[in-house]
Design brief:
This protein starts with a helix and ends with a helix. Helix 1 packs antiparallel against helix 6, helix 5 runs parallel beside helix 8 and helix 6 (157-166) packs across helix 7. It has helices at 2-8, 18-69, 84-100, 106-109, 123-139, 157-166, 178-195, 208-215. It has 8 helices and no strands. It has one domain (2-215). The chain is 62% helix and 0% strand. With 216 residues, the protein is mainly α.
Length: 216
């Protein structure tokens, strides 16, 4: 917590109340840890379901073949052996299973909604950036990511803020550099309307408890 504030101090006019900052900071980080854990379980389930989907497709093909066999001349006197009522019930059960296996959200399972190139979806990151943009507004930190990416490893104050907070996330969720973090932020803001149902605004004015407390 103190390490994050020390990185931001040159860009802050006043130091925010530490208890309120910690409360918002912890809430944001804990949310991502919970999403990360849920995502892990979803992905494990989706991998298992992928194998089941292959098996259910083979089962559907076999059951339909049994139905079609009932019309063959050589089966005219032996249709009872096919137990068609049981076959129909099995087909219904398989179809219900296939429907259930499609319920894992693509954003959590790691699958893409469509066959497009690019990074796997990171819907959680837009929510993460939204929360940090809100905190940035409270402490009077400008929400910018441009400039200094090539020669300055810390980029802008807001990118530094996000990059430092990422260090408290699971290791595989962190950006490799401040420049990579800035690009992630840009993508999150650009896709926020789709990812979280609201557009993240870059322009933030100091507001809320942090700003009020620092003005007193």
């Amino acid at each position: 917590m103190e390490a994050v504030l020390s990185k931001l101090r040159p860009a802050l006019r006043d130091r925010p109340p530490i208890d309120q900052f910690r409360e918002q900071f912890d809430a944001t980080v804990e949310t991502i840890w919970a999403i990360h854990r849920a995502t892990y379980h979803y992905r494990v389930a989706d991998e298992a379901f992928r194998e089941l989907r292959k098996s259910t497709q083979r089962a559907k093909t076999a059951l339909r073949a049994m139905e079609e066999s009932s019309t063959a001349p050589e089966m005219a006197n032996f249709i009872g052996l096919l137990k068609l009522d049981d076959v129909k019930d099995a087909l219904v059960a398989v179809n219900e299973l296939v429907s259930a296996l499609t319920q894992v959200p693509a954003a959590f399972s790691g699958r893409r909604e469509t066959r497009t190139k690019g990074r796997r979806p990171r819907a959680w990151y837009s929510g993460f950036v939204r929360d940090l943009v809100e905190i940035a507004g409270w402490i009077g930190l400008p929400v910018t990511t441009g400039g200094g990416r090539d020669g300055d490893p810390v980029a802008t104050p807001f990118t530094t803020f996000v990059f430092e907070v990422e260090k408290f996330l699971p290791r595989n969720l962190r950006s490799n550099s401040a420049a990579a973090c800035a690009k992630q932020i840009d993508r999150a803001i650009a896709g926020s309307a789709t990812e979280i149902g609201e557009q993240i605004a870059r322009a933030q004015k100091p507001r809320g408890q942090f700003a009020e407390s620092s003005d007193k």
